[in-house]
Amino acid sequence: MEIIKWSEKYSLGIDEIDNDHKELIKLLETLQESYDTCLDKETTLEMFNKLEDYAAKHFSLEESIMDDLKYPFKSGHVRDHTYFATMVKKWRNDEKIECKSQKLSQFLTEWLFEHILHHDMKLRDHIKQENHKTDE
Ligand SMILES: [Fe+2]
Q: At what angle do helices 41-68 and 97-115 cross, to 10 degrees?
């Protein structure tokens, strides 16, 4: 199975957010690389915990930016974040998670790229617009 990687088209041009996205992809890549084998359960759970913590921290950063800007599309964006968090939580509790991690990470990576292109880019445009207003 091909490993999905970060590329420049996913860059928002906002370092704080881009670095978080890259780190999330890196965490997911570690899981993607584990294909064809069942990992050690403890290692798998450790990876999932790391992913869950990092994603929560990152989502709250974006959500606080949305609050500051009174972003009008916050609810849809947050709903998408909640979906990711719920999926990670659900799978982390799956009995055979150590044998499914590659498939799941592929799914989560695809979700993340879709999310960046749709929701995060829309937020980026709004941030730019707001910055432009204050420049005038
Ligand atoms: Fe987001």
A: 20
